[in-house]
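REQUEST
  id: r-88c1
  op: predict_structure
  target: Outer membrane insertion signal domain protein
  payload:
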Amino acid sequence: MRKIIKTLAAAMGVAILLLPTKTYAQDKFTVNGKADFVSDYIWRGADQNSGFSVQPSLTLGYAGFSINVWGSQTLSRWNVEIPSKEFDINLSYSSNNFSVTVSDYWWSGVNRPYGHYKDSHYFEGTLTYCFGDSFPLALSWSTMFAGADKSVEGKLQGSTYINASYTISLPADITLTPAIGFTPWKGYYHNKAAFTDISLKANKDIKVTDQFSIPVFVQAIVAPVYDRTYLVTGFSLGF
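RESPONSE
  id: r-88c1
  status: 200
  body:
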């Protein structure tokens, strides 16, 4: 498994070096904030036991680079032993249709210590490629390479998630996105290779005024690996 992790790390390094060069003289420093309100929080086919949640994010970007802080907080399940809470940091570089991301996931819950990096943080690298508007297929490969992603024996698992999605534009400004997720070997998601999630998501911007709209989505999710189904909805507010 360590050889696989090293190979993937090398692939990410080569991918960064091979990214097309581009002039960013006209690029400006950007700041974006958003809050998603979701009826339930399902991540890669797994129920995060969060129920109705708010998921804020803050993104700073410049010249293809960005740093994003993303969180999730339950608004409905405070009667469980450890209410759900997540805090993630993502560093990305994008050029044309290709992007590289390194993520630090933390989802230990409300009032839990944050600084236990070896035991409660999951570090992951992701490669994503989008083919473009004429063929809107997006492919991503994500592998955990450090932190708490360990087997019972304490060895790094290299848990990996592969996703493919395709965006379809429909009348009435509705966007339909079928997607499928897969884990190729034993790890965090399952004890062997398996399909983790199959989903169909519909998005539409609901116009409130001439200058303000609210993005709304409905998503049906089947999680074969967990034998679960979900129907999730939500909306976003942002700038």
